[in-house]
Amino acid sequence: MSQVPGVDRVTRTDRLGNPISLGDVLPESKAILFTGAPGMGKSTELDRAEDLAARHGWTTIRMSASASIPIEHHLTGAVRNSLDTLDRRFRGRRPPTTGVGRMIARFRPDPLRKLRKTVNDLTRSGRKTRVGVETRVGGGPVQVIHKTEQDTTAYDKLGTTLNDFADELGKLTEIDNKPILLLVDNIDKAEEPDRAGLNELAIHIEGLDRPVWLIAAGGSMSTSSLMVASRRMSGIATTTSNQFDIRELEPVADEQLRPAVTRPLAAAGIPYDDLAIQNLLAAANGHPARIRNFCNAAVAYRDAEQGITVLAAARAIAHVNADAAQMYQDVWDQKDTNAAQKDLLARVAAEGSNGLSMPAVTQAAGPGAWQQIDEARQDLVARGLLREHDGTVVTIPDHGFRDWLNDYLGQTPKPPAATPLLPETAAGSGALAPAHPTGKLERTNEVFGSGTKLVHQVDRKDERGRAISLDQRVPRGTSVLFTGPPGSGTSQELNRTKQLADQEGWISIRLDATRREPIEARVIRSLQGQMRTFEARFPPGEVNQLKKLVNGMAIRTQNRMHTAQARFGWPGAFQVGVHRSWEGVAKDSVGATLNDVAAQLGKMAAPTGQPILLMVDNLDAASKSDLTTLTDLSSHLRREKKPLFLIAAGGEEATSRLLEASGGKAGKETMEAARWDVRRLTPLNAEQLRPALSRPLHEAGIRSTPQAVDQLLAAANGNPSRLRTLTGEAIDLAGSDQALTAETVGTAIEQHQIRSRVLYDAAWYNCTPEQKDLLSRTAAHGAQGIPIPARSGTDPDRWSLDGAAQKLVSNGLLTRTGQQIKVGDPGFQKWVQTRLGVAAAQSGVVQAAQVKAAVPTGERAPELRAVGQNRDLQANR
Question: At what angle do helices 519-529 and 594-605 cross, to 10 degrees?
């Protein structure tokens, strides 16, 4: 028996008892990520997804990411390899129609034609095109030929994106409404831009409303690397939310592994001793790949009559460990195993089977040193060389590696302790639950409303008591920027502005910034999608001029190539040609800019006075070049004073990045960015957030106790997005006919915190030592937090501490209220306290500092008002 089949078909569950593998009913979340240490079965989960699809007649497209080849190239090859399968499923089929529609459908093009074109275009994004004119003079034996060519890369050939590919897959599923699964393995090997592309693809698929799923797999660091990619260009990451339903594969319990071992042995007629199987499972320690190796060796060493005996199992374990000795040496010698990691491995190995309490180690290390130990711990866990138990104790899961280390280091491990540190089920504690909320999104949307139409819309105010939203306070100038930490509602302010525009009949153009495509390309795509609206509202001449400018934006240089040629000889017989080529760039064909397009839009809007809104979300994704473009556009709008407004949304560092970008190549800030109307969203207090919870519950007919409402508000900690998520999970847990009680809400909050542990771990890994130090101090003081780090005095570390505080607030890990900071997510606060031990964080609490807020002044500009109104809405209030 060369292998033990069935080991990779164990039904794995998370800490809450939910299955980890995909089942016959696909999850509501359409972006799933399997992660785990090496050998934990991540690729096997993709194999299972393929088997599941084959049983149901679904289609799978599978690829593996890599560092050397862009994801688009892998995707192109994977789709081409799947074309035969797609042909069998879709060729000759059309979306179901009746009557005349059925007759017309016969003449529709092949449904796969557009997909093939999209796949071909994926690897040729941004390709240049040229058009030319040829002039021939003369005839007979002599001809003179002159050719002129120029770039004509139009806006409709900017290149194809991953989102375009997902759209085409979605259109195909309309034919039979069966799922298509896009499987991507080894995503942790991909370059950061490719991971950013997968993040964007996950968000796009979630909103596609088509049966298309993105199922990815990668190592333990995949979550943190995706989080880094979600930081985009600003350095700001999402922290307690993620684009993926994260399913972390951890050790499998012995009781789950045992049948996967014994069933194949029984089927093969190989007898075995129960104690021998128990010893093999103990040696594997919950590791699926290792139990396979041990069982294969045990079959080879089995007794001819008694089968797998205790002796055969012992010989098999010794054989596998001896074979792995060279690998152990290579792991120890490789560059990634630095001195801090070697020190920690040696300490853990010396503890034998007892495990090492990490809070005790970090506390003993002292300030400034414990972060290096903590980082070594996290790296070793990610590599599978250490295993964590309940967030405090670490062990070496591979007993062969542990014994090799003790022998190599010449140390004798401690005997088993009378009071063990490890929980009773150390090897099979179960995997982390999915990080995505389990509450049904459809039910949550029914209660709270969608992002564009909430049941209760919170009226936000800034620190000076002024209204935040544009429907309540007109902007100061023609450029507005909403900023705030992740989940604070900056995108919701754009939704609210869009509602205002729809009510008043204004044209609004909305787009997302991305690190994978220039902002100008996104503007071109958005304007192209709105062109029918412009055609319906404005004169044809104005619209044609707009089209010409939009087309010209993509022609940046419009290089011209000239060729002069002379041919000698008889046509059709024999000719010899001599030619000369040269380039030339005409000054009047440099191409349009975003400012030119804005000038045309302002000109079109001026006669009626009805504003046109250009809204840019996810400003954190914009590159410095894109931000420079936006600051130039903002300056242009301010000078023109036309009813065209730039409305942007981004993280708290968007303002400082705009300042830096305003200086262009010099990098020195100018006053251009300071003229933006910046509106910062701060955390809501419980009373501000209470109506956003109580009113939707009341209108949905869901009963709730006052204690349950208070618990949800406290757990949300001023974050509207977290409140919505937690309440949705509590509603799902309570059922249709039950009230929300304190017990139900408490269970929902606890489950959500368990699900979020993988995200907490990823966010912590991406913090700097200074940020970890500040988080530890803040978490130790619980809900009240600590004063903002002092900026006065002569302490040389005060500026690094101040920078750490600002970055943590921007990332959403800390929340600032007045002169106090506290951990933004109570679950993350508990996670930090458990990881380090509360006592470790009590020292060195910083002092408060007085901060004076500067009051910006600005120039007058056209006001964004509702039609028929001639007042400042805030003044009216």
Answer: 30
Going by C-beta distance under 8 Å and a sequence separation of 6 or more, which residues neighbour residue 473?
466, 467, 872, 873, 874
The half-sphere exposure of 271 on its side-chain side, counting CA atoms within 13 A, is 8
Q: DSSP label at 297?
A: H
Dihedral sign, Cα of residue 805, residue 809, residue 813, residue 817: positive
CB distance 279 to 245 below 8 Å: no
255 CB-contact burial (10 Å; exposed 0-12 / middle 13-18 / buried 19+): exposed
**Number of C-alpha atoms within 13 angstroms, CB side, residue 111?**
22
Identify which of 457, 347, 326 has the alpha carbon closest to the alpha carbon of residue 402. Answer: 347
Residue with tokens 């017990």: 743
Q: What is the 3-state secondary structure (H, E, C) of 796-816?
A: CCHHHHHHHHHHHHHHCCEEE
Hey, which bits of 589-672 come out as E strands? 612-617, 644-650
Please state, as a whole number, how many other Cβ atoms lie within 10 Å of the Cβ of residue 228: 18
Say which amino acid occupies 120. Answer: N
Quote the CA–CA distance of 850 and 458 in Å, as a whole number. 30
Tokens 């990823």, located at residue: 762
Across the chain, which has 877 residues, the per-10-residue mean pLDDT values are 48 78 89 90 91 92 89 84 81 55 51 77 60 70 72 53 85 88 92 87 87 93 83 46 79 87 90 94 91 92 92 95 94 91 95 92 89 94 91 93 94 86 48 44 81 83 89 92 87 93 94 86 89 93 91 62 72 69 54 86 93 93 89 91 94 86 70 83 88 91 93 90 88 83 91 86 90 92 86 76 87 85 90 81 34 34 43 29
Residue 300, SS3 per DSSP: helix
Question: Quick one: which H or E segment has residue 56?
Answer: helix 42-56
Dihedral angle, C-alpha 289, 292, 297, 303, nearest 10 °: 160
How far apart are alpha carbons 571 and 136 in whole angstroms?
Answer: 13
Q: In a 3-state reduction of DSSP, which class is residue 454?
A: strand
Instruction: Check: CB of residue 521 under 8 Å from CB of residue 544.
Output: no
Residue identified by tokens 């459908």 is 105
| Bridge partner list, 150 | 131, 560
In 3D space, the residue among 374, 388, 434, 391 whose CA is nearest the CA of residue 241 turns out to be 434
**CA–CA separation, 829 and 242 (whole Å):** 18
**What token pair was written down for 267?**
């089927």
The residue written with tokens 């910046």 in the block is 678
Distances (CA, A) of 114 to 111, 182, 386, 637: 7, 18, 49, 39
Residue 609: exposed, middle, or buried by beta-carbon count in 10 A (0-12, 13-18, 19+)? exposed
In this structure, what DSSP letter does residue 838 have?
Answer: G
Q: Which residues pair with 60 in a beta bridge?
A: 181
User: Counting runs of H as helices and runs of E as strands, what totals does the chain give?
Assistant: 33, 22
Token pair for 673: 């960015």
Q: Report yes or no: 250 and 432 within 8 Å, Cβ to Cβ.
A: yes
Contact 451, 443 (CB under 8 A): no
Token code pair at residue 94: 């059309």
864/135 Cα distance (integer angstroms)? 55
